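Now for a chain:

_____
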Amino acid sequence: MNENSTGAAWEALRDRLKTRQARIVEAIRDYPPPITACDAQFDHLLEQRDGISRELKRLEQARQEGGGTGNDIAAFITSSNWIEGDAVLLPAHTATATAKRIET
């Protein structure tokens, strides 16, 4: 995997996480005013917002600390609780390896 395609894959992952983050923030914004600490669904949205923010930071850290190969991207995808079905972003040989890791 060359540097351009690796960079594009990291950007695609970041874009997907940012899209999920935007949906969560929108759901929080549109949520009816809760009764503090009494609304489990609202509290769950807040937890999701915080979790996806941490995942975006982890993505940037992984990308800066090496992230130069398809295997680095595959490792990030498999270790993430926030990315589902993103093996399509990888070259075929890496996507196959990732799918095998997920199955085991």
Notes: The chain has four helices and no strands. The longest helix spans residues 3-30. The radius of gyration is 16 Å.
